[in-house]
Amino acid sequence: MKFLVCVKQVPGSNNVQVDPVTGVLKRSGIQSKMNPYDLYSLEAALSLAERYEGSVQTITMGPPQAKAVIVETICMGAESGTVLSDRKFAGADVLATAYTISQGIEKTGEFDIIFCGKQTTDGDTAQVGAELSEYLGLPNVSNVISIEEIKDGKVYLTAALDDKNVKMSVKMPCLISVDGDINSPRLPSYKVKQTVTDDMVRFLSFDDFDDKNPNNYGLNGSATQVERIFPPEKNAEKQEIKGTSAEQSQALFELISAKKII
């Protein structure tokens, strides 16, 4: 049984600048980490691989330094990983990102279950998993909070909706996006890190894909464009209200009424 986990390298700090022309994050020169939700999806895949004697591979899209996040997944138990890296992929929105990853997966192999994290901490769209499943023609389940078993070609799981949890089965191959309540991720192994070799991480570029149309990737292939990104305004204004409890209550009432909060 073969599992694939989609991971992403995200900024490790909230102090990230935005390119004023393209509206995309400036990722160069900043500390990065694995997207937290991807840790849960990786742990889910590794646990199933141990339970059903399967194997786990990982895949990511990003600049060459994204190799670090693939190495981290190998240190946690994945067998190998793939980095999709090319300047033509830069500036992609969720649609172009999902398409690029789908092209990379088609060159990587066939898998019983593809795992994604619920969302990323830099984009927070929670759309790539669902769009990726559409490009790959696979059934998709989002917000998965537990995986009970795999039996007779189906995976039995529980997904969280807004007001209820739903138990269901989905035929494999399929794509699953997991929530943070599903497990507690394991730590990377330093001992394994010492054994990681270059051939465990594969790089694929635009030239390796079957679709050679550059208009389907990056900014050119994005259906949406960011009009403006800006940091929220900080308001350090404060006002101290003195007096008795009754006087303070009345003053507070008049203040929030004047601001039309109530």
Annotate the secondary structure layout:
Layout: E1 2-6, E2 9-11, E3 32-34, H1 36-52, E4 55-61, H2 67-76, E5 80-84, H3 94-108, E6 113-117, H4 128-136, E7 140-151, E8 154-160, E9 165-171, E10 174-178, H5 190-193, E11 201-204, H6 245-258
Parallel strand pairs: 1-4, 1-6, 4-5, 5-11, 6-10, 7-10
Antiparallel strand pairs: 2-3, 7-8, 8-9
Helix pairs in contact: 3-4
Can you tell me the CATH class?
A: Alpha Beta
Q: Give the count of helical stretches.
A: 6
Q: What is the helix fraction of residues, given as a range?
A: 25-40%
H/E order of the elements?
EEEHEHEHEHEEEEHEH
What's the CATH H-level homologous superfamily? HUPs
Tally of domains: 1
Radius of gyration: 22 Å
Shape: globular
Extract low-pLDDT stretches.
Answer: none
- Order of strands across the main sheet: 9-8-7-10-6-1-4-5-11
User: Do you know the CATH architecture?
Assistant: 3-Layer(aba) Sandwich
Q: How many beta-strand segments?
A: 11
Please name the CATH topology. Rossmann fold
> What gap, in angstroms, lies between the N and C termini?
58 Å
Q: Sheet with the most strands?
A: 9 strands, mixed
Mean pLDDT across all amino acids: 91
Strand content: 15-25%
Structural class: alpha/beta
Oligomer: single chain
